[in-house]
Amino acid sequence: MSAASTVNNTAEVPSTPTYQTTSLAESMLLLAMLTVFQRGIGFVRGVLFCRWLPAEQLGLWDLVFGFLMLAGPLVVLGIPGSFGRYVEHYRQKGQLRTFLYRTTVATVVLSAVGCGLLWLFHEQAAVVLFKDASLAPIIPVVALTLIAVVGFNYFVELFIAMRQMRMVSALQFVNSVLFAAIGLGLLMWYDTSAESVILSYGIACSVTVVMGGVVLARDWKQVPLCDRVPMQSEFWKKLLPFAAWLWAINLLSNLFEVVDRYMIVHFSGLTAEESITLVGDYHSSRVVPWLMVAVANLFGGILLPHLSADWERGERSKVSQQLNLLLKASSMVMMAGAIVIGLTAPLLFEYVFEGKYSGGLEVLPWTLTYCVWYSLVGCAMLYFCCAEKTHVGAIVFGVGLAANVGLNALLLPMWGLTGAVVATALANAIAIVLALYLAHRHGMEIQKSTLLLAAAPFLLGLGWPIALSVWIVLLWQAYAGSLVFDDREKQTLWGGVSVLTNKFRSRT
């Protein structure tokens, strides 16, 4: 059907959404404020969970949370992930009501089936997740929580697609605060176990689902009726291929992020209780380093629209220059943060964590190493988003996943938890090398200094004296030489620092 006939056959479609939207600039500001505040709450919550939970229960929660993040998009076939692409498409065609109705029904049915199967085969699920059938009673709680997680993800994706960032901010704010408050409350007054944490997360997600449902019901009345309802076959033929591709990418990236913990459970050669305790040690080593990943994701999300604008104007070389600068600056800043974390970690583990996680402190250098590399992989992925080659992300994460499984199978039985974390670090090294190689194959100009800075995080795993000494040399070169940043990049960095300084002074 031609564009003209589409317009003629559609009821009067407003040029702007009938629901209230948020501007791009305001969305970015909300995103920045939300991320900083949420990560602060999450950090305090994570520290207190480590302090109050026994290592085995902390490991159990880590495995459950990893499963929820993996299974959430999995059970609904990635359909909510397509909202960002198709909400506006069907709104402009006057078919938004049909789109929302069909995708909502499909999401509810698929999540009910998936969670029902999880409940029905709870003993088998306990063996797969924990290698311990005696933990089967916790699976029904996980199944109910999964339904709430699917609902929470659904509304977040929907309101982002509808450009209602105030609502997204409200949902995530309420979810984060409730999870912390209820979780810490249950640990203090109900039971010091992973079940209390799972329940609190499920309750927090359920409350936000109710909030999202109320807002959707209000906005539903403003969505115009459809003049032409697309055939079911035509509708799903268009939607499912895109959703399936996103589903595959989410599956591979989420597996890449969690597979090492499940390898510990199934391939460490330890009993279920001992392996889950190791996962608890591992979790303690990730509490602080994972904040760097969140910050890197924030800056990547803010930078992407600007990179996309340059790309659309045909300024491909400028995109390459900005991404090289982002990768190098990120590596320098995160290495500095990692060194500070490493030097102060003994105080955190000894006094705040009460000496319960000596294994976590031991593997912290390699945890920091792979967190920096994982963040750099995310930065490199921005190029594929600009070039509309997001399928390359599936290749990178697929190869990284295979490497992670293979290296864990080799190193985990020999070195225990250290082997698992080193294997994950090496898998992330493979992922960043592959991401940069494929970006170069698709036109990105990779600087030699970018390769140097991308390799530098390896020094973190060799010990703080070596890492700090080399970082000081790199910092001196960044300031006085041209090995790290050239003159144009220095001018860009100093210009950004000057703008931030002036804004800060103007508000004080």
Low-confidence stretches: 1-19, 21-26
User: What is the C-alpha radius of gyration, as a whole number of Å?
Assistant: 24 Å
- How many strand elements? 0
- What shape does the CA trace take? globular
Question: Level of helix content?
Answer: over 70%
Query: How would you spell out the order of helices and strands?
Result: HHHHHHHHHHHHHHHHHHH
Reported for the largest beta sheet, the result is: none
On the 0 to 100 scale, the average pLDDT is 85
Termini Cα gap: 58 Å
Task: Report the portion of residues in β strands.
Answer: under 5%
Total domain units: 2
Describe this entry's structure for a reader:
- The chain has 508 residues and is mainly α.
- The protein folds into 2 domains: 52-251 and 258-268, no CATH class; 278-497, no CATH class.
- It contains 19 helices and no strands.
